[in-house]
Every structure is written in C-alpha cells, then in structure tokens.
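Much of our argument rests on the idea that a fold can be written as discrete symbols. In the encoding step, the backbone of a single protein was reduced to a row of integers, each denoting a local shape. We regard such an encoding as a compact summary of how the chain folds. The record that follows shows the chain in one-letter code together with its fold in token form:
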Amino acid sequence: MQKVKEEFFLSVIFVLKWLTLALGALGILYFAISLAYHRSYYDPLMKEYELEISELRKQKIEVETSLSTLQITLNEIQTHIDLLQNTEIPAATKAVKLQEEKIDSLDESFIDRYNPFSEKDGEVKQIYDERNRALEDKEKLDEKLEDLHMTQAVKTETKSEILDKINQIEIFISVEEHEREKVGTGALGVLPWLLGILGLT
C-alpha cells in the first residue's frame, strides 16, 4: 500500500514537472512572439498612427485659427455694414433731401432749374454744389455698402469651405483613432500577424 502511494506521488510529481516545463516553454515562446510582434509590427504601426493623428490635429488647429481670424473679419464687415445702413447712409440721404428742399425753396423756373447751360449766381450755385456733393457722398456710401456685401458673401463662402475642411479633418482623425484601437486586437492581433509571418494566411 505504501509502495502504491509512493508511485502515485512520483507520478504526480513527474506530471507536474513536465507540465511546469511545458508551461514555462509556452511562456517563453509567448514572450518571444510578443516581443517580436511589438518590435516589428505593433510599435512601428502605433508610432505611424500617432504621427498621423498628431499631424491631423495640428492641421485642424491651423484651420481653426484661420477660421477664427476670418470670423473676426466677418464681424468687422458686419459692423461696418450696420454703421452704413443705420447711420451713415440715412444721414447722407437726409443731407441730400435737405439740399433738394433748399433748391425747391429757390422758386426757380423749370428752365432755369434743369437747363445745364443756365448760369447760377453765387448763392444759388453754392446750394447746387452742396446738393451735388451730398449726392456724391451718398453714392460713395452706397458703393461702399455694395462692396462690403460682396466681400461678406465671398468671406461667408470661404467660411463654409473652412468648416467643411474641419469636419473632414475630424473624420480623418476619427478613422485613424479607430484604426489605432484595432492594433493588437481583432484583425490586427498577434495571431493573424504570426500566421502571416508563417505564410499560413
């Protein structure tokens, strides 16, 4: 009975010894494969993804900075437009109307008023000159307003293009981050890499 027990314990020790050796060998093999995987595939690929993501984020910051500058310009344009529409052009229109009223108060005949060859005396000539200057000032303000509206339209279109570019960059960043997360797992894991190295895939 004692001999059976000794043989049983010896058998268990023998099995445990070889099991330990096998597990140790598997551990060493796994470590070697894992080290090779990281050095030849994982680390370089991760660095590549990190570099690409970093470049995309840098590009996004640059585009966002240009967007911020453009928005400041648009705000300034809108301020000028508001000033023209609400203050300067109404004042110029009022000035023209005032000069027209002065001309109306002269009680000139139709011929004297609209005859381009009619000679005006000093005071009347001054009133007409002031009316003409007021008209020129208003025309300049109207042209300035039109130019600002055109510039605003162009800048707004540019803003839309920049926003589209930012959205596109964000999509690229999202794709790169997703691909980076797949490294080391799933389709990009150690087993597919090892099978590829061994030519089994």
In short: The first helix runs from residue 2 to 104. The chain has a mean pLDDT of 80.
